[in-house]
Amino acid sequence: MRRSAILGLLFAVLVWAANVRLYLKDGNYHVVREYQVIDDRVRYYSVERGDWEEIPLALADLKRTESEAAERRAEIARDSRELAEENAAKRALEKETSRIPQEPGAYWLDGNQTRTMKPAVSQIHINKRRQLLKVLTPIGQALSGKGTLEIEGAHSATVFTNPEQEFYLQLSEPQRFGIAKLTVKGNLRIVENIVYLPVDHDVEENPTLVDTLQREMDPAEMYKIWPKDPLPDGEYAVVEYAPDSLNMQIWDFAIERKPAGK
Fold it and tell me: 230, 173 in Cβ contact below 8 A?
């Protein structure tokens, strides 16, 4: 359908471009397919009457005719260039999307290789106790008070030197997502602060999200996400979650720029 629309537009542009307004000095004009100056006459093919005709050269305003024709040629060239750029961008996006698996998860591109990020195992720390959380499994209602969502280890095994690293998310259902800044505490990394209210059975989650840019890919529920500004060195995670339900999925990573000169 898209290709047919583009071809139809190109055909319309070509038809439009094939016609020229041959202006007269009195302000009127003839719509012509082409024209030529022969001695003191202007011979042209009339689009309206479908035949060749002539008028005295003295009656024709060739300067205005040529000026408008030049503007139209420039407009055609500009439109053709924009269409070519749009098609090239569409092909590039399709190629990029085809490299990302459609199974739910987080991915990144390493040259010609597609890499799958390993989800981190998280735990809740509340009232000096920890409860292991499985992916997409909410915390039980026995815990209460303030706490933190944590993952073990002070440093991620996935390290990027590019502070503007791009990621791809294939969601299983519509969810919020982003890049969270993690806080290192001993041998743990804190993903977010939480407050659990047993009376109302409510959970308040407060991840520290960095500003990101994103693009919806095709098929649906596939997104590309990257930081709006270069990330400082530190610990981070791509996160996917439903607000205040403690079902966060976490794909941790670290940013470590290469030392200057290396």
Answer: no
Q: Are 76 and 197 in the same domain?
A: no
C-beta of residue 133 within 8 angstroms of C-beta of residue 118: no
Domain of residue 141, residue span: 105-255
Nearest 5°: the CA angle 131, 137, 138 is: 70
Q: Is residue 16 part of a domain?
A: yes
> pLDDT digit string (tens) for 189-248?
999 988 877 666 677 888 899 999 999 887 677 999 999 999 999 999 999 988 777 788
Widest distance between CA atoms in the chain? 101
pTM above 0.85, yes or no: no
Q: Which tokens sit at 222?
A: 């596939």
* Whether the Cβ atoms of residue 236 and residue 254 lie closer than 8 Å to each other: yes
Write down the residue that tokens 């959380």 correspond to. 133
Last residue of a domain, one of 47, 64, 98: 98
CB 204 within 8 A of CB 173: no
